[in-house]
Known about the structure:
Layout: H1 5-8, H2 16-30, E1 38-42, E2 45-49, E3 55-60, H3 66-82, E4 97-99, E5 102-108, H4 119-130, H5 149-155, H6 161-179, E6 188-190, E7 199-201, E8 207-209, E9 216-218, H7 221-232, H8 239-249, H9 259-275, H10 282-295
Antiparallel strand pairs: 1-2, 2-3, 3-5, 4-5, 6-9, 7-8
Helix pairs in contact: 4-8, 6-9, 7-9, 9-10
Amino acid sequence: MPSSDAARGEPEEFSSARAQQVMVDACRMAGLESGGAQLIRLGENALFRLTSAPVVVRVARGAEYLPSVRRELMVSRWLSDEGFSAIRVVEDLEQPLSVEGHPVTFWHLIEDAGREATYEELGGVLRDLHALAPPDGLSLPAFDAFGRADLRIESAQGIAEDDREFLRKRRRELAELLAGLRFPSGRGPVHGDAHTDNLMVDAKGRLHLIDLENFCVDHPEWDLVVSAHEYDGLGWVSAENYAAFVSAYGRDLREWPGFRVLSAIQEFKMTTWLMQNVAEGPHVVDEVRGRLASLRDDDAPRHWRPY
């Protein structure tokens, strides 16, 4: 997987170091002290926990993320009005800020309980979420099945051109399969990235849905495929935990014939998502290489590591 980035003239990589500098500048603009801030996660965004205040700073990868950042702020306020337990925006700060083209937002820290949310808890939260009715004034898009996969394929550094071409072709094949699906459920609120890492348990045992940037109005199957694929395709979830998820939600998506198509799209997006972070170290490069190899063989076992 040799890099062709120098010849392609790629822009500066969004790394943990760059995100930290953006965070420091944003905190200065907002009147917050950034010293000692800790990186929580580097993925679609970089998340930093401040030590000076109970605040999490969220740095997006670039200006093209601004619409989803604004959507996340609106959804957080709507869920708060509904009394639905989700991450809350810091209301007394003007946001989003823009720092060198990176949208930055500020969120109330959730003091976690020291344990991960269970799949049973996730199933219950999704059941309640899918029962809500967004207000007419909240303009939400349909689910973008491939998200930013196209952007990642073209811009990720350290990816060989033959891998990019394979992913372009795979994207077209999956889009054709998706176009032929008939969903059994109606449209409603969908989280868009519904895995257990996006459900936090606070110190009092309350659940909080986080990472709302992919929130949309579409078929609930898009939320259900995440856990179903982690169990059925990746083996990351035990049979007992997946059964608890199904029991709490009231449905096993694997019984729907369209599950295999949604599962294939899910693993395609998971691979392109990780491609963004190849600059973080050889372990990421190796994982991306392994995922690309398995995508080329539908029958190959998915020995993927969670990221």
